[in-house]
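Example record

The entry below shows one chain as it appears in the dataset: sequence first, then structure tokens.
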Amino acid sequence: MKCFQYVLSFASIGLMAGNVLAQPPETPYKVLDTVQVMGNGGIDYVFADNDGRRVYVPRGGQTYVFDLDSHKLIGSITNISGHGVAIDKNSHHGISSSNPLGMFDTETMQKIKSIEVQGRPDGILFEPFTGKVLILSHVAPSITLVDPKDGSVTGTIDVGGAMEEAQSDDNGKLYVDVEDEKKIAVVDLKAMKLVTKYDLGDGAGDPSGLGFDAKNHLLFAMCRRPNVCVVMNADNGKVLKTLPIGNGTDGGGFNPNTMEAWSSQFDGTLTIIKEKSPTDFEVEQTVQTKAGCKTSSLDLKKNQIVTACTERTPQAAGAQNAPEQGRRRFRGGPGNLDVLWIGR
């Protein structure tokens, strides 16, 4: 009888171990919600303000504002548009990367003033170390620093090349995609000058999105033509891995809560890359989104990625009798603005 009990016990242990090994993988990412708003014009960046719990999407001559939690449209800020926006939580001021720049109050959702700058503003971010909003340009000056309290221009930095997305280490160092050089620029914000440029290697395309793992000092450069993510040591520029992504990336980032990088693509895909260790990386999932959803932002509280795109209404596409155009970069005329929330 005892032997039989032992056999059952060992069998039970084996069965339990088998069940542990057979546990399903982590729940995959999917589109959790989509909000549509009719409007006119094209879009570029979408920005999730984690402190203010809002989502900003400039389109046409205004910027749409959504609730980051309920996903509902709050309203729009008129006469504020451009490529993207950055928010300073202390002054409750926002700035748009247009020319001239637009400055607005996040509480009243009213424009404060226009700010004249040089160059061709494109990317934009609030940088914690300097307390300034950084305007990234495709032509000189490469980086313009703006004080979000009063909108004054406090300085410029010459990097050379076309600036795209940037990431700060919050300690005075900035990493910037140099799109037309296939490099990552390293900028010293204390000295206000370029330190060096890291070459992404022969297998890289034009960098557009950029993720940064501050803990392990890793950069994730999302490139197009060819479509790859280049993982790089942020301290010395050593390329650690090159992984395939979707077609037409224009945004990306890194989530320290999940140890995952991502890239959003124009072909309607979102590539999730898992950092298994500081030297081991793999493509974890390709999520179907919507064609044109090429830029993205992160809700750190809910570990959700927000992306946006525009699409013609069926009536507009039919009226022009050009269905193929609906799949291309839609920049004008009436159509839906689609804001997507992607998570587990």
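Notes for this example: Helices lie at 2-21, 314-320. The CA atoms of residues 144 and 156 lie 4 Å apart.
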